[in-house]
Design a protein that fits this description.
oxidoreductase activity, acting on paired donors, with incorporation or reduction of molecular oxygen, heme, alpha+beta, binds protoporphyrin IX containing FE, Cytochrome p450, globular, 18 helices, three-stranded antiparallel sheet, monooxygenase activity, 7% strand, 503 residues
């Protein structure tokens, strides 16, 4: 028995040695981007901390703005400079616009969604529907009163807590705001805990997102994935199941209501998808699976990203009282103190817009964008990139690149006053929404929720901190704060403005 054990160990060591040598050899054929030497099986996973964007940024200081890493056995190219990002997302966008293959149709990263669909006819079809039916300027305008109503509800909720003299959980308030808006746009109502087996909807979403955050060993080392050592796949399946059961009820309720001919105040996105699913002339037949998966995508893409931007903006303003004061002075001078802000005021509020841009530069809510995937062999920066390689673009590192930004890690909204820098993917010094074919289609909605939410928080209240501010980040596919932001609000407008108007 002992002898057999020794033989097994020798064989294992020989296997590891040979695969290490083979991996080293394959790295040296052709001119591939430089990178750390990978270990067998784990590749370079041991170099990646619980905050991958930070580990990858440090590694890029050593290996350069385009480097190769092995996540388990999966070769991955990491991009960390504006010039290289432009090559991948603009010059050769058509070659890098796909996503790595992940999961089947019941998986929460199903290709039946939009964000993880490979580049091709299905993705084009679904993206067009989402833009036309939910995110076009005309559709966004039709939801303006909904945004006003939900921001006002947040202000009233904060006022209620302000009266009891306690610090308010700002993270929770802005999270409910963005979640409520996107739920109502998607399926006509806020999410009811009772329909989610007692779970808070946002928590289910957040848990799924944090499980999806990548760098789970099981995703990159097939054996570990198969035995599901950390129980991640089991948890994902449970949560996906909760979400799908919830969506089944929503779809049934919509079908029932359509049968009864009841009209809604807004035609929501599930209504639109259901009517398209009856249209025989559509190039792709929309099924219940598509409706569940695409709706999940929208909720996941919109909620934490927009909520996260709002909470980091508030955190930085609380750390920088002079910037907070400047933003409030701007609001007082353009809007005054005798009415609430409306969306039509936003274009005048240049400093407020600069605060939002500076927040997106320092805290891009998808710090590594979503993974891209090469569809052909090509070269970038003189290096060979083989077909079917995963590409990660480190938007977090790019926004803090000292060769692109003065005092790169400082929060200075003034840098955007009068600046031509575009945040929608034309200026590669900051790409919080990505760029090109796969760039975020929700920028218009995100900016109106974030700018209006922030303007109203600053106009309606003065804010102070109950204790020292902790600015640490937590692990996630977005960039969440490690601890919720708590702050003390003091109303600063006449009290009648916080009361609902008589119908
Ligand atoms: C501040 C808020 C937001 C930020 C920072 C953000 C950022 C991003 C980023 C970086 C990507 C990936 C780009 C790439 O892979 O190159 C993305 C994709 C996406 N975003 Fe956003 N997003 C935000 C809000 C929204 C909102 C409100 C929606 C609308 C519901 C939305 C819908 C999507 C969708 C559907 C995709 C997938 C696009 C595709 O794969 O074709 N996002 N977003």
């Amino acid at each position: 028995m002992e002898f057999l054990n020794i033989i097994s160990w020798i064989l294992l060591l020989m296997f590891l040695l040979v695969s290490w040598l083979l991996l080293g050899k394959s790295r040296n054929t052709g001119k591939h981007p430089p990178g750390p030497l990978p270990f067998p099986i784990i590749g370079n996973l041991h170099l990646i901390s619980h905050l991958p964007h930070r580990s990858l940024c440090s590694l890029s200081h050593k290996y350069g703005p385009i480097m190769t890493l092995y996540l388990g056995s999966l070769p991955t190219i990491v991009i960390s400079s504006p010039e290289m990002a432009k090559q991948v997302l603009k010059t050769q966008d058509h070659l890098f616009a796909s996503r790595p293959p992940m999961g089947d149709d019941n998986h929460f990263l199903s290709p039946q969604k939009l964000a993880f669909a490979p580049y091709g006819p299905y993705w084009k079809f679904m993206r067009k529907i989402i833009i036309q039916e939910l995110l076009s300027p005309k559709r966004l305008k039709s939801f303006e009163s909904l945004r006003a109503q939900e921001v006002f509800a947040m202000i009233r909720s904060i006022l209620h807590k302000a009266n009891s003299d306690r610090a308010v959980d700002v993270t929770a308030e802005v999270g409910f705001l963005t979640n409520n808006i996107i739920c109502i746009m998607s399926f006509g109502k806020k999410c009811d805990e009772a329909e989610l087996g007692g779970r808070v909807f946002k928590e289910v979403l957040q848990e799924l997102l944090s499980l999806a955050a990548g760098f789970n060993y099981g995703d990159y080392i097939p054996l570990l994935g198969w035995i599901d050592l950390q129980g991640i796949r089991r948890k994902q399946a449970q949560l996906t199941n909760i979400f799908h059961t919830f969506m089944e009820q929503i779809i049934d309720q919509h079908i029932e209501r359509r049968k009864n001919g009841n009209n809604l105040e807004y035609e929501d996105f599930v209504d639109v998808l259901l009517s398209l699913s009856e249209d025989e002339s559509m190039e792709i037949k929309i099924t219940r699976g598509h409706i569940k998966n695409v709706t999940y995508d929208l909720l996941a893409a919109a909620t934490d990203t927009s909520g996260g931007t709002l909470e980091w903006a508030m955190s930085e303003l609380l750390r920088n009282p002079s910037a907070m004061k400047k933003a409030q002075e701007e609001l007082d001078s353009f809007v005054g103190k005798n009415r609430l802000i409306q969306e039509s005021d936003l274009p005048q509020l240049q400093y407020l817009q600069s605060v939002v841009k500076e927040t997106l530069r320092l805290y891009p809510q998808a710090p590594l964008l979503l993974p891209h995937f090469s569809v052909e062999n090509t070269t970038v920066g003189g290096y060979e990139i083989p077909q079917m390689t995963q590409i990660l673009v480190n938007a977090w590192a790019i926004g803090r690149d000292p060769s692109a930004w003065e005092e790169a890690t400082e929060f200075k909204p003034e840098r955007f006053m009068g600046s031509q820098i575009d945040i929608k993917g034309q200026s590669f010094e900051m790409i919080p929404f990505g760029s090109g074919r796969r760039g975020c289609p929700g920028i218009g909605l995100a900016m109106s929720m974030v700018q209006l939410g922030l303007a109203q928080l600053l106009h309606c209240f003065d804010w102070s901190l109950p204790h020292k501010l902790d600015m640490s980040e937590a692990y996630g596919i977005t960039l969440p704060r490690a601890v919720h932001l708590h702050a003390i609000p003091i109303p600063r407008l006449p009290l009648h403005l916080y009361q609902p108007k008589a119908p």
